[in-house]
Amino acid sequence: MKIKEVEALTGVKSANIRYYESKELLIPLRGDNNYREYTKEDVAMLQRIKVMRLLGISVDDIRKIKMQECSMDDVVATRLEMLEAEERTIKETKKICQTIVENHLQMEDLSENMLGGDKKQWEAKMRHIRVTDMDKLFLLKGMLLMGIFPILYWLTTLGGSVGNYLNTGNPNGNRLVIGVGIFLLVYGLALGTYEGYKGYNLSWVMGAGKNWAAPGLGILSNGFTISGMGLPFFGAIFGPVVCALLYLGVGAVLCSIRIYFIRKDIHPIKRAVEVK
């Protein structure tokens, strides 16, 4: 049978079916026209996968069971422990909500001391909140900021009307240009690491609260933008291809740094859930 028939029988979308195939959970036959041909056993396997996914068992664990890398008992026992932990969290959350309702507490009456029970359960919930309660376009905005200076540079040198004013044509002068580019990239990466550790957004201002701080320039002084300033120096010497590759590479590193700090729960928001 074809994939559309399998989709109708199981209620699993074709995109999901192909994903399970990529994980080697399903291995359909190929017909003469190279189309997938699914058997009744494939449908049965897909229904088993569906049940396990509805129980909250991960695709990786399902694959391990299929490949006999671990037993069904071990995987389900682990899942049961997770459900029991979730149940305890729900009970504790329900208890706090009941206290709020019974005592008619208002927002100003709430405190962290109310978060009783296992401290780890609240830290786990906070990690999830930190990922969901944030600007979903944050990293995209950072990448766009990093592209401003390379784009401006190439626009001003387009067609040779202004000329490549960063390329001196002299080896010693060009080494200095490359040195400036390296400094800006390294500084931008270091600044990006600092921002990730502190949990700063894209428009934070170094020295905020001091007389010399310029709030309007905050968006021009973050790790993404500083790194972007360094890219034209490389593009002038090595060309647009190298500039584009550096843009993608440095951008990937800066995004990875941010994702690392978000997932590892390192920056100060972690203290918001510490129970004394």
Core attributes:
276 residues; mainly alpha; Multidrug-efflux Transporter Regulator, Chain: A, Domain 2; two-stranded antiparallel sheet; 2 strands; 1% strand; flat; disordered C terminus
Verbal overview:
There is one protein chain. This protein has helices at 3-10, 14-22, 40-54, 59-66, 72-102, 119-132, 138-157, 171-198, 223-238, 240-264, and strands at residues 29-30, 36-37. The chain is mainly α. The protein has three domains: 3-66, Multidrug-efflux Transporter Regulator, Chain: A, Domain 2 (Orthogonal Bundle), CATH 1.10.1660.10; 74-132, no CATH class; 138-271, no CATH class. A two-stranded antiparallel ribbon has the order 1-2. Helix 7 (138-157) packs antiparallel against helix 10 (240-264) and helix 9 runs antiparallel to helix 10.
Give me the Rg, rounded. Answer: 27 Å
Overall spatial form: flat
| Overall SS class | mainly alpha
Q: How many β-strand runs?
A: 2
Q: What's the domain count? A: 3
User: What percent strand?
Assistant: under 5%
- Tell me the major beta sheet: 2 strands, antiparallel
Which regions contain 5 or more consecutive residues with pLDDT less than 50? 209-214, 266-276
Question: Gap between N and C termini, in Å?
Answer: 60 Å
Mean pLDDT: 83
Order of the strands making up the biggest sheet: 1-2
The level of helicity is: 55-70%
How many helices does DSSP assign? Answer: 10
Provide the succession of SSEs: HHEEHHHHHHHH
Quick synopsis:
The protein is mainly alpha-helical.
What are the SSEs and their pairings?
Elements: H1 3-10, H2 14-22, E1 29-30, E2 36-37, H3 40-54, H4 59-66, H5 72-102, H6 119-132, H7 138-157, H8 171-198, H9 223-238, H10 240-264
Helix pairs in contact: 7-9, 7-10, 8-9, 8-10, 9-10
